[in-house]
């Protein structure tokens, strides 16, 4: 009887290991494509990009503040449309600990500079010259806005144009609870 | 139910057909046979022994050859269905338009095919489940049969019971001389048989390892399957693609921290080649000789963040050609595609007096990085008010650009000359000039444009390739062992009455076994053997003949 029990145990073990291996590979391959994309709840990938004044912006420097991360291009119609609203809301929320950061996708400084002048943008605009940050955030359509809370976690990913009201709501949602957090 | 004790005293597991020790038939089935079934040496196939608990039932299900064959057939049929129409991965439209594409191109069948999910069959969970079940079946069937077989083969006794000997296909019985065993041993050894003698009995064996062939090839298959499964582990398998523009540094997808600069794309053709009729028919007039991208691969210093390109280090410079990928840390970058002269890189304009056609100087604009202004001398300069890399038209009087790529560049210039110190504005696109006032003294006359090529590269990394090779190799070794070698055995026994009992067995190629037996008979005095199976068949034929 001892032998029988042992054999049953071995068989059960082998079957479990095999079933586990197959289950794991199936689930991973089904999730595979999703896993490569940035998702809500992920830690926002850190990056460093240079703005139009030559200053470096590193995401982790904004820890403790909400970051309203907007990916855009000058050729993108909805991007142009939401820029003035973002500019106005930035003026309101900057003092409340929400940093607006616009990431231009692989364009020339000239185009970005002209655009900033034309729209009078007050928030920093950085250029992702190599597409590295675009890949890290798996950005496909423009505009895409990633909301990052003061803890550095992605709380929402918005693709497409936003109204001013939505922009205000989004900025509100990532406002630090301590309103003085940005005054370090 | 646990065991069967043979007459010889050996205790066999339940389900054994032939006693492992002496070879006496133990099951009723075997006792009724004239020739024993030597599959798995008559040992108890493990799954045939117990069938009580759930675990045993699942085990037995996967151990079944019938189930295994059914799984193979299902896998084959499913895989074949996936080849009926191109999979979504290979169709020239995006995933969002796939449904419409299948219906449009393949009609009602395409629509159903897509709706059933057959257009992306190989990544569906159910296909992977079937392949997984097949893998389980292979593993369990191998354990279930391989282990008892191995035990029987290694525990073989030299002396077998008469009933075992007489139930072999090739047998002989008759008088013998005292030297027969010694003579046979010498000859068999010459024929490279492994001979064991014990108490008036002889067992000669050759190529026993061939019995392990099927199990070895199963091991190979399992390694192969495991390698494919490993691809889902992050970092093991990368398959990405990128467009690299000449003169640009781009982050390499799938290769964190690496950047690629495309120095130049080169397309060369065979020269002086005559155009054949076949080429004419297909609209081909030249044949490409070389597709090449000269690149520089950069890497960020350790610990640098994405986007930080301030301290890139050159890793290597290389000319990627077809079949000559750039390789770096397990990654390979292959030349896959190209776009020739699709985008412009530079445009040169002459600041020209419209009346006299006199030029005040030329400026060249880098279309990927234009300057805000171009100074010719103290009083002559050109300001760029607007740049539209892919000019698509005016909207509310404002020029629009459709993308960031300079495929149809246009500019808003402000020209300052000694004659016009206030500046004149002019909108200049390809074969298009718009002047706000309509009476400018100067114009920006197009002189020249430089085109740029774009190279399509794929980035591959596959850590599973060595494993796939090992699995494939082991599989082939197993097949070869099982196909080209046969396990041959001969038993010779001196009986108490002075006669000799002989039996021979092989798992395949009986013809060669008989030749071996004949060769032994030339040197040792053996009785004439009979092939019991051939005899049975003859008998059946005769009976059948009479029946008619």
Give a structural overview.
The complex is a heterodimer of chains A (184) and B (548). Chain A is of the alpha/beta class and 184 residues long. Chain A folds into two domains: 34 residues; 133 residues, Glutaredoxin, CATH 3.40.30. Chain A has five helices and seven strands. Chain A has a five-stranded mixed β-sheet with strand order 5-4-3-6-7. Chain A is elongated. Chain B has four domains: 103 residues, no CATH class; 108 residues, Sirohaem synthase, central domain (Double Stranded RNA Binding Domain); 105 residues, no CATH class; 113 residues, no CATH class. With 548 residues, chain B is α+β, with helices and mostly antiparallel strands. Helix content of chain B is 31%, strand content 32%. In chain B, α2 packs across α5. Chain B has a six-stranded antiparallel β-sheet with strand order 4-5-22-23-3-24. In chain B, strands 6, 11, 12, 13 and 21 form a five-stranded antiparallel β-sheet that branches. Chains A and B meet through α1, α3 and α4 of A and α2, α5, β7 and β15 of B. Chain B: One of its GO terms (biological process) is cytochrome complex assembly. Chain B: One of its GO terms (cellular component) is membrane. Chain B: Pfam families: ResB. Chain B: InterPro entries: Cyt_c_bgen_Ccs1/CcsB/ResB, ResB-like_domain. Chain B: It comes from Caryophanon tenue.
Count of domains of chain A:
2
N- and C-termini, Cα separation of chain A: 73 Å
Q: What's the domain count of chain B?
A: 4
- Mind describing the biggest β-sheet of chain B? 6 strands, antiparallel
How large is the radius of gyration of chain A? 23 Å
Uncertain segments of chain A: none
User: Architecture of the largest domain in chain A in CATH?
Assistant: 3-Layer(aba) Sandwich
Tell me the greatest interface: A-B, 45 and 51 residues
Report the β-strand fraction of chain B as a percent range: 25-35%
* Spatial strand sequence of the major β-sheet of chain A: 5-4-3-6-7
- How would you sum up the major sheet of chain A? 5 strands, mixed
Order of helices and strands of chain A: HEEEHEHEHEEH
For the secondary structure, the number of strands of chain B is 24
Number of E strands of chain A = 7
Helix/sheet category of chain A: alpha/beta
CATH class of the largest domain in chain A: Alpha Beta
SS strand fraction of chain A: 15-25%
- CATH topological fold name of the largest domain in chain A: Glutaredoxin
Q: What Rg of chain B, in angstroms, do the CA atoms define?
A: 40 Å
The residue-averaged pLDDT of chain B reads 87
Organism (chain B): Caryophanon tenue
Keywords (chain B): Cytochrome c-type biogenesis, Membrane, Transmembrane, Transmembrane helix
Protein name (chain B): Cytochrome C biogenesis protein
Pfam families (chain B): ResB
């Amino acid at each position: 009887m001892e032998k029988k029990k042992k054999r049953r145990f071995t068989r059960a073990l082998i079957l479990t290991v095999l079933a586990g291996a197959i289950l794991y590979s199936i689930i991973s391959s089904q999730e595979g494509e999703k896993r490569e994309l940035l998702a809500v709840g992920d830690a926002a990938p850190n990056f460093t990009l240079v703005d139009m004044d030559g200053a470096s912006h590193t995401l982790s420097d904004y820890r403790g503040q909400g970051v309203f991360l907007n990916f855009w291009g000058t050729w993108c119609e909805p991007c142009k449309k939401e820029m003035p609203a973002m500019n106005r809301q930035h003026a309101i929320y900057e003092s409340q600990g929400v940093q607006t950061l616009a990431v231009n996708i692989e364009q020339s400084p000239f185009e970005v500079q002209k655009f900033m002048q034309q729209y009078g943008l007050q928030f920093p605009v950085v250029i992702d010259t190599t597409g590295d940050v675009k890949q890290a955030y798996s950005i496909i359509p423009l505009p895409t806005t990633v909301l990052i809370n003061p803890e550095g976690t992605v709380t929402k990913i918005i693709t497409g144009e936003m109204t001013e009201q939505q922009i205000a709501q989004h900025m509100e949602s990532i406002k630090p609870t301590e309103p003085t957090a940005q005054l370090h | 139910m646990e065991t069967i004790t043979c007459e010889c005293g050996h205790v066999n597991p339940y389900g054994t057909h032939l006693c492992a020790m002496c070879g006496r038939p133990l099951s009723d089935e075997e006792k009724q046979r004239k020739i024993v079934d030597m599959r798995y040496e008559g040992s108890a196939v493990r799954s045939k022994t117990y069938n009580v608990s759930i675990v045993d039932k699942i085990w037995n299900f996967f151990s079944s050859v019938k189930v295994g064959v059914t799984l193979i057939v299902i896998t084959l049929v499913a895989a074949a269905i996936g080849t009926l129409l191109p999979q979504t991965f290979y169709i020239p439209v995006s995933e969002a338009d796939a449904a419409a594409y299948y219906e449009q191109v393949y009609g009602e069948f395409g629509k159903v095919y897509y709706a059933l999910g057959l257009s992306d069959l190989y990544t569906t969970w159910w296909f992977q489940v079937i392949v997984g079940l097949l893998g389980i079946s292979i593993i369990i069937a191998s354990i279930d049969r391989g282990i008892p077989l191995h035990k029987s083969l290694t525990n073989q006794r030299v002396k077998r019971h008469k009933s075992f000997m007489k139930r072999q296909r090739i047998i002989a019985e008759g008088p013998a001389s005292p030297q027969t065993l010694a003579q046979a041993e010498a000859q068999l050894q010459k024929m490279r048989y492994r001979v064991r003698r014990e108490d008036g009995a002889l067992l000669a064996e050759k190529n026993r390892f061939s019995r392990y062939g099927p199990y070895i090839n199963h091991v190979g298959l399992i390694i192969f399957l495991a390698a494919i499964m490993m691809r889902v582990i992050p970092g093991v398998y990368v398959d990405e693609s990128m467009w690299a523009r000449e003169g640009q540094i781009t982050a390499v997808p799938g290769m964190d921290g690496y950047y690629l600069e495309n120095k130049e794309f080169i397309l060369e053709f065979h020269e002086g080649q005559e155009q054949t009729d076949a080429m004419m028919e297909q609209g081909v007039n030249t044949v490409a000789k070389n597709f090449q991208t000269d690149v520089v691969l950069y890497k960020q210093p350790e610990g640098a963040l994405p986007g930080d390109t301030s301290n890139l280090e050159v890793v290597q410079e290389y000319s990627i050609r077809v079949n000559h990928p750039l390789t770096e840390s397990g990654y390979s970058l292959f030349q896959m595609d190209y776009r020739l002269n699709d985008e412009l890189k530079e445009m040169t304009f002459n600041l020209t007096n419209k009346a006299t056609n006199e030029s005040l100087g030329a400026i060249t604009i880098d279309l990927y990085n234009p300057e805000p202004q171009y100074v010719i001398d103290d009083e002559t300069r050109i300001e760029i008010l607007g740049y539209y890399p892919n000019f698509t038209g005016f909207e509310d009087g404002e020029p629009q650009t459709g993308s960031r790529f300079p495929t149809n560049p246009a500019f808003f210039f402000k020209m300052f000359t000694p004659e016009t110190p206030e500046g004149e504005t002019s909108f200049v696109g390809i074969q298009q000039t718009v002047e706000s006032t309509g009476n400018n003294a100067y114009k920006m006359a197009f002189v020249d444009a430089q085109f740029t090529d774009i190279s399509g590269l794929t980035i591959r990394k596959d850590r599973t390739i060595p494993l796939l090779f090992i699995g494939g190799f082991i599989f082939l070794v197993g097949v070869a062992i099982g196909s080209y070698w046969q396990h041959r055995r001969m038993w010779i026994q001196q009986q108490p009455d002075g006669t000799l009992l002989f039996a021979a067995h092989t798992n395949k190629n009986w013809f060669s076994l008989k030749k071996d037996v004949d060769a032994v008979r030339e040197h040792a005095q053996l009785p004439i053997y009979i092939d019991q199976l051939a005899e049975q068949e003859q008998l059946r034929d005769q009976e059948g003949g009479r029946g008619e």
